[in-house]
Every structure is written in C-alpha cells, then in structure tokens.
Amino acid sequence: MSALPQSEPAVPTVKLLIDGKFVESRSTEWRDIVNPATQEVLARVPFATPQEIDAAVASAKTAFKTWRKTAIGARARIFLKYQQLIRENMAELAAILTAEQGKTLPDAEGDVFRGLEVVEHAASIGNLQLGELANNVASGVDTYTVLQPLGVCAGITPFNFPAMIPLWMFPMAIATGNTFVLKPSEQDPMVTMRLCELALQAGIPPGVLNVVHGGEAAVNAICDHKDIKAISFVGSTKVGTHVYNRASLAGKRVQCMMGAKNHAIVMPDANKEQTLNALAGAAFGAAGQRCMAVSVAVLVGEARNWIPDLVEKAKSLKIGAGTEKGVDVGPLVSCAAYERVTGLIERGVADGATLDLDGRKPTVPGFEKGNFVGPTIFSGVKPGMSIYDQEIFGPVLCLAGAETIDEAIELINSNPNGNGTAIFTQSGAAARRFQEDIDVGQVGINVPIPVPVPLFSFSGSRASKLGDLGPYGKQVILFYTQTKTITERWFDDSTVSQGVNTTISLK
C-alpha cells in the first residue's frame, strides 16, 4: 500500500460508488491489484477516507426512505433485468475475474453463475416476505405480522469469490427493501465493480447500492457506523470474529461465514474412480482457495490403499495461468498467499506427515513469476500437526486414516470447524448414519462440495459461523427484515361499549 505517485505511467484506478455515481477517491492510500499469474499491475484501488464512507452510508440512508416503499413487483423486475445482463456479460465478467484473482476461466464462469442463481432467487423473494394473520384472536380483534426492511445494510466480502459472494449479499438485501454499502476485497475488486455497473444499468436507483474500498479501517468504520443496521461477512475466522464482536456490541445484526477444515470420509465400498475425481476436483480446484474445499480426506479401512491412485490423479492436473486452455489449477491470489502455503507445506514435513506429492515450484512456461503451487498430498496426517489444525487455503490435501466410520465421524466432530463435510459410499445405511451423527452444517453424500442452491440456506456451523441465519434462502429474509406485529380492532356505531378495561386481556 502506498501513496499514488503522479509521475508513474497511468494505471486505471478503481472508483467508489456513491449515490449512483462512480467517483474518484480522494484517498492518499492505494493498493495495487496484481495479476497473480504474471505480477502485472492491473489497476489501483483506494482505501476510502472516513468522509467517503460516511457519504456512502448517508446516500444509502436517504435512498432507503423511498426504496423501502417501492413495490415488490418493481424491485423484482430490476433483478429479472439484472440476471439477464449478467448472462449477456458472462464472458467479460469471467475474464476480469481470472485476470485479478487467478481462477481458470471455466471456474470463473462458475463463480459468476453461482452468484447469478441468487440474483434469480432475489427476483422472486416477495413470495417469502409474507406475514401471517390470525383472525378474531379475541372479540373483533385481528393480529397480523409484516416483514419490514431494516434500513442500511452492509457487506464485507473476501478475495476468493469476488463475484459469487457479493451477489449472495446485496441482491437479497435490496430485494427485501433495504439499501446497501458493499466493501469488496481490496485484492480483486474489479469484477465486483463491473457487477455493480450492471446492477445500476438494470435499474437500481441512486443510493440503493454503494461501494467503498479499504482494509481494516474501512471494516471498523462499517462495524461502528450508527446508521448501518446489519452486516453480512464472509472471510477468515480471525476477521469474522472481530467483525461479529465489534458490530454486535454496536447493536447491529451480524452474520459471519468464516474459516473451515472440511473433511470427506471415503468408505471402501465407494465408487473408486468417481471418488478420486471428486476429491481431486474439490481439493485442488481454485488452487484450494475455497472455504468449502475438501482439505482432509479420511480413508476408512481398505480405502487407505487408494493413496497411490489419488496421487496419480493429482499429477494429471495441469497447472498454469487461468487464461490458458486445459488448465486445472491456477495461481494463488498473492505472493503472501504463496509464502503462507509453501511455509505450511514445510511445516507438514517437519511435523512428521508423509509428503506423497510435492507441488512446490512447478514449472509453468511463460509464467515464471506466477504464484503457482501444484497439487500437494500429505498422508499420515493427525490432529496437532499444523497442516491439520490450520486452514491452508491452498491446493493441499491431507489424508488421515480410520478403521471404522464411527472413528472417522468422531475425528470430524472433534474438529472445531463445521462448514462442510461429505461421505463417499454406496451404502445407504452408512450414509444415513453419517448424516445423522455428523455435527457439521452442510453435508454431502457422494457430493464433495455441498453448497446448497439458493432455495435453501448456507448453513455452516460451529466455529465456521457466527450468527444464526444464513446469507441466502429463506433464512436471509429473517436476517434482512424485522417482524412487526399489529393487533387491531375496529368499532362501528352498533358496537356496545363494555366500559373501561383495566386488565391485560382482550375481550
């Protein structure tokens, strides 16, 4: 992070979005956005000033006065248009995402598409924003509820899904009648900003969606701001815990989706080829930079003999820049991420795990400066080892062994995280025992990354989540609205007065 020199060759600057306009920040603090495959500086992003953050919130607060009264159908039509625009610009969005984040182009399109699904759901959210009515709860008395928007809401999003996760947040908040201030990751905000351009093009009015950029100071400003009513966060456990505690103390609603250590149990009766393919894809896709990646496979019984086959499967994956055809594993997002992942691989060796496949320093012709780490596999991994206890967030798969399914379940339930888990088996009895006894929020049965579609809610648990409501699906309606209960009685001229009633009951 540095001051923006005036003498350097012109590099594009990422703008702020305030009151429907993309404006140049007056900040003196900027960060380079770097292509992780080449180290080319793509643009510079400002760390918004306190005054700019206040202006974004003020714009959202003003816009809320009219947006909250906008008809549900009118809001829905904006998101119908928005999903159409995202589809029409899918290739451009994926290219921007790949350049700044490193994902392969097909994976980048998947990133956008999973967000698009939530936009589609937002277009029909009025069906879920219904109140309840009880007629004649007492003599001539009716009681009903309405779900009303909160006001200004905010979102803080991570680098690993710069399209999908912003689209988890602001469409749902805005569709339910709130206004929004978004702080995307400062590492790769360009695709997020393009999505916001399309949102304005779709008809979102000025002030309803605002964007600020920054680091810790911006996060704290969002947590502390008196006019922000709710915050949605996705990111690391350290930052998420800070956001939850600070914002909750400030009286805000908060939902935090945080770190993970996702285990997959492999039973000896599993379909071997399908299971190996699933493990390799879930562990090494997106260079392992997914909060739902499979980072630990627990091989039960004879499945422990599959390690050589898994290594061969991992070796078959192509490493390279995300723009190259046929690439399976792109670069890590930054030099810092590269140093952290390679450092943890070294710790794994030092802690006594067996390094079956070493992905450090792969040869990637034409991209020698890229942050590349290839698929890496450790076996003999146990709790207490750094590579087991920490979320590596790289293309590293840890293999543990178990004699029985019960032993494997006990291992998973002993881990503090509860984001996602899976089992690979052809036994219905084993699958049912697993889904009943496992203490993890999102469960896959022969599905390695069980992220639910938007009709359901993202339901991570334990140390992977703070707050009791998920970021989309039915749960998010409760998060972004407040329930108001109305009890009413109407009198006409024929009503006989019953006199003064000094009791609490309705008669």
Automatic annotation (TrEMBL):
Domain of life: Bacteria
PANTHER family: MALONATE-SEMIALDEHYDE DEHYDROGENASE, METHYLMALONATE-SEMIALDEHYDE DEHYDROGENASE [ACYLATING], MITOCHONDRIAL
Coiled coil start-end: none
Enzyme class name: oxidoreductase
Name the UniProt record assigns to this protein: methylmalonate-semialdehyde dehydrogenase (CoA acylating)
Keyword Repeat: no
EC number from the UniProt entry: 1.2.1.27
One Pfam family it belongs to: Aldedh
Similarity section: Belongs to the aldehyde dehydrogenase family.
Domain Aldehyde dehydrogenase residue range list: 22-486
Matches recorded under NCBIfam families: MMSDH
Entry keyword set: NAD, Oxidoreductase
